Amino acid sequence: MKVLFASSEAFPFAMSGGLADVAGALPKALRRRLVGCRVVLPLYESVPEQLRSEMTFVCHITVPVAWRRQYCGVFEAHIGGVIYYLIDNQYYFKREGLYGHYDDAERFAFFSRAVLEILPHINFIPDVIHCNDWQTALVPVFLREFYRFDERYAKIKTVFTIHNIQYQGIYGMDLYSDVFGLKEGEEHIIEYGGCANLMKGAIECADRVTTVSPSYAREILDPYYSHGLDPVLAKFQEKTVGIVNGIDYEVYNPETDPLIYMNYSAESLSGKAFNKKELQKEMGLPQRDVPVFGMVTRLVAHKGIDLVKSVFEKLMDADLQFVILGSGDWEFENFFHQMAEKYPEKVGLKLGFVPQLAHRIYAGADIFLMPSKSEPCGLAQMVALRYGTIPIVRETGGLNDTISDSQDGTGNGFTFANYDANDMAFTIWRSLMGYANRDGWEILQKRAMNCDNSWSVSANKYIRLYKELMEKKTVK
């Protein structure tokens, strides 16, 4: 089985969010299961020089972008047993940042067409092209419209994964022929609400559509979560499935992690207590035996930060500490800065993102707070479990699929259903009661650490999906 994973970012080459982690970890997990998985992404200006020096030039071709043809260089890199192809075009990708440019529609139309054009030149015709988010949404569209009758492409199946439905690639229909180069009379493929909606086109043209958790697959059928695409998803519901992302168990491993203060395991938790004391010290908090709550998050409303803000000072009445790492809206950054000044013995704050500190919070905190309004999958709650830090989450998306309430004696965290500050606060009080029972808390920690959220589980589900597709006959 041969799979080409098309992504606009991938660790360690280019990263802006969780998609890069997925594109860096899932192909490795597939390779371990003898799937010939390769990855293709743009060669951005930000790709580190060290990685550039290890690439080899494969070839250069020209790629059609509607009525014009553009240079496309192909470079190859080998990381962790996976082959990566990086698409070079300095006009489109020699810029600061990955996204947010005025011509993103053209940049990623070029990239999507390049994904298909390079296949004969790299001597790799995949059984499945696995596309991700709107930046690669045109791959299934272009494959159907321009390549399906070429025998080299005739059997290729496509999977399109929605990582975040909020970002759909919406542009004016004036780009339909001038940038996308699609045929007259086929406008219905990408037209939606009077605009060109690239994600809509992928949902219609891909052989299968996946989301990053089963709960999110159900939620996006609801207008509250779908950002307007629920009628399209309802129409193609039969080909849509949710598969939870995993985390890289080599990167997040308390037994070997070089970024934490001391390594430990579920069998020997003494090192976790040491990590807690050192975290308190690093964040300027008294080294007291009180429950430490950790948050590693973007400080924006949809992450539930408005809930935290509304009850935060009430929480300060309890004997606890908060450690917060993140950045985002000025309103929330300013609020937590004020709280850190007002409660210096209870609140430790670091604005920005420091990977080493993130690992130390996962290892040193007792409880991890993640009260998101929506969360397609979420990785932080699974990382917290790995380090024996008990999550408090709202029952949404991937949080609902990976965290179950421990009240029944079998769960791995604490959950609440309604997006309500008082419900969240009550759940926090429940977690404090659980923490007070030290014997029971240690059992909960070990249960959390023994959860399997590795990519091996998710990879097996993707392999089954790929095999099902390959067994289906292609309709031309």
What does this 3D model show about the protein?
The longest helix is centred in the C-terminal third of the chain and has 17 residues, at 455-471. The strands form three sheets. The protein has a nine-stranded mixed sheet with strand order 3-4-5-2-1-6-7-11-12, sandwiched between helices. Strands 15-14-13-16-17-18 form a six-stranded parallel sheet, sandwiched between helices. Helix 1 (18-32) crosses helix 19 (455-471) and helix 12 crosses helix 17 (421-436). The two termini are 22 Å apart. It has 476 residues and is α/β, with parallel strands linked by helices. The mean pLDDT is 96. It has 19 helices and 18 strands. It is elongated, with a radius of gyration of 23 Å. The chain folds into two domains: 2-246 and 456-471, Glycogen Phosphorylase B (Rossmann fold); 270-451, 3-Layer(aba) Sandwich (Rossmann fold), CATH 3.40.50.2000. The protein has helices at residues 18-32, 49-53, 90-93, 104-117, 138-147, 175-178, 198-205, 214-219, 223-226, 230-235, 270-282, 305-315, 330-342, 355-364, 380-386, 397-402, 421-436, 438-449, 455-471, and strands at residues 2-6, 36-42, 56-65, 68-79, 82-88, 128-132, 157-162, 170-171, 191-192, 195-197, 208-211, 240-242, 292-299, 321-328, 347-351, 367-370, 390-394, 414-416.
Strand order, largest beta sheet: 3-4-5-2-1-6-7-11-12
Alpha plus pi helix count? 19
Question: Considering DSSP H and I runs of 4 or more, what fraction of the residues is helical?
Answer: 25-40%
Please, how many domains?
2
The secondary structure category is alpha/beta
Mean pLDDT over the residues: 96
What fraction strand? 15-25%
Shape: elongated
CATH topology of the largest domain: Rossmann fold
> How is the biggest beta sheet arranged?
9 strands, mixed
The CATH homologous superfamily of the largest domain is named: Glycogen Phosphorylase B
Number of strands: 18
Q: Under the CATH scheme, which architecture of the largest domain would be assigned?
A: 3-Layer(aba) Sandwich
For the record, the CATH class of the largest domain is: Alpha Beta
